[in-house]
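Notebook entry, structure prediction.
Reason for the run: the old model in the group folder had no record of what sequence produced it. Starting over properly, with the input documented here first.
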Amino acid sequence: MRHQAKLKYIAACLLATLLLSGLIALMASGALAGLQQKSKPASTDTAPAMAHGRGERAAKAREISYAVKHLKLAAKAGSLAAELQLGHLYADGKGASKNYAEALLWYSRAAAEGSTPAMARIGDLYRSGHGVKKNYRTAAGWYVRAIVHGGGNAKHLTADLFAVCKQPSLSPALRASVLNKIRNAAVGGNANAMYTMGAARNGGVLAERSRTKALLWLRRAGRARCVPAMLYLAGRRYLMRLTPHQAPSEAAHDGKRAFYWFHRAALAGNTDAMLFASDGRIDGWGTGTKNFRAGLAWLRRAASLGQPVAMANIGDMYAFGELPRNYFKALHWYKMASAAGAKKLAASDIKALNTMYRYGIFTKH
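New structure, fully documented this time:
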């Protein structure tokens, strides 16, 4: 199928960028922790949520002064989400002047209540010296705290920690202390810390390089539902099965293990993994049996979550006959893919689709 080339490209990108990718800017997650628990009358329980909702809508409409007013009301009433969003508004300067001191204040309040994104953003401020004196030691401490706390994106947190720990100004004793904290958390069952240990062993950062120990930690992280670890293990196996020198039995084994990890990551909600789970079901690699219906279900699920390549692949199915050929449905999915961010891919697909239409492959109705 045409979309297999797209899948191979995504697998290569996943594997190439997953570990030790340099300075990766942490994009604060929109998935936030729950509201701070406080005892209050039942009649006022919805007040913080209502104020936060008004502030969020105002921020999207660029009505910053109105947004800040209502977000502060929500934050003072105990809304962790409002505290974090106030930090973002002041740190990123979206529609207003940047104020790193205010950003640090609200991030600190959110971090004190257990927000992993807030901890990571405080680390960013100390690493860059925005609003505070640049301090790599303090930045490393906040990144470690974010990793050990759990949640967040383990890949981004690990990359940020490694970027700080590579600074020559940090002492070997501090690096050893960081590694010790991460190892203790990993041994205690923290999935993020397991991933960081695997990345450290794989790249020789903080710890002696050992491919065997790296894979051991990454497998543990994958079994603990760490999606970046699953994607690394899956991508590694996926690319191994494509090597020309592999015997068919070896390729089949690698395909089976690749599908296993892609399928687990898909079940955990990763849309890129859903593409590979779909391909495995449709073509039968890694499963031994073809199941078009199950594969299409994964593809539609990924598309419903905004995955542009999944949308383009559904368009391919309507264009090239895996689903009943339909010019208008194919065009619909290609336009959806373009709107979701795959403009170049969709433009190429639409050009091919229109060429097919001119040559009479599709009926006029």
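Summary: Confidence is low (pLDDT under 50) at residues 18-45.
The old model has been moved to the deprecated folder.
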